[in-house]
Each structure stands twice: as structure tokens, then as C-alpha cells.
Amino acid sequence: MSADTSPTYRDAYARLSRIAAELETGEADLDRVLPLLEEAREAYAQCRERIEAVRAVLAGDWADGVEADGDEEE
Fold first, then answer.
1. Percent over 90 (pLDDT), the chain
2. What CA–CA distance (Å, rounded) separates 26 from 34?
3. pTM, whole model, 2 decimals?
4. Long-range contacts: 29-32, Cβ < 8 Å, 24+?
5. CB atoms near residue 43 (< 10 Å)
């Protein structure tokens, strides 16, 4: 994790991948499934939050200085 203790997108995605792999084996103990799903929901929310933040920047700040044909405004 980073210095501010919030996981990076990469960290959260790695958690999702690890959880999916564990659940796909079908060998996860039933008592472990619910905690895994809770952890996956948290990691998914973190990934989605990061993706939405990037989309907002791309839709807003970057689009403000570019016309529809791709030329920058003067």
C-alpha cells in the first residue's frame, strides 16, 4: 500500500484476482466464502472509484481545451 494507507488500483485489482482464483478452485471453506466476498466488494469499490476519477478528469479537464475535430482551442 501507499504511504497514505489507501490501496492503489493495482493493489485492489490484485486482491480481486487473488479472491477470484481462490473462489474458482471451489476449495474455499464455506466459512471463508462470506469474508472473501466482503473483501472482493471492497476491492471492487476501490477499483471503480479510481476508474471513475480518471473518467471524470478525461471528460472534464482534458475535453475543455479540445474541439470536436481534435484541434486545441485558441
1. 54
2. 14
3. 0.68
4. none
5. 20
